[in-house]
Specification:
The protein is an alpha+beta fold and 70 residues long. The chain is built from three helices and three strands, in the order E-H-H-E-E-H. The chain has one domain. The chain has a three-stranded antiparallel β-sheet. It is flat, with a radius of gyration of 14 Å.
Length: 70
């Protein structure tokens, strides 16, 4: 039995955030401009999303029916 571990990054770029959330890069870019998307960090000209923030943002929007408001 061999175990392999995969390093999970603490932050990803917009393409990584797109992969994690399933939202297109263009949608994430729009949300950064208009608001309403997941929190992000701006470091110089780089945008990074903390994986923990993406997971929390998605979890905060879980509902049981379309009648619920996240």
């Amino acid at each position: 039995h061999t175990s392999t571990s995969v390093a999970v990054p603490i932050a990803v770029d917009v393409r990584g955030a797109s992969t994690i959330t399933g939202f297109p890069v263009a949608t994430l870019n729009g949300w950064r401009t208009k608001g309403g998307g997941p929190p992000f960090a701006k470091i110089n000209k780089s945008v990074r999303y903390r994986v923990v923030d993406l997971e929390k943002w998605m979890a905060d929007r879980v509902v049981s029916s379309t009648a619920e408001v996240a």
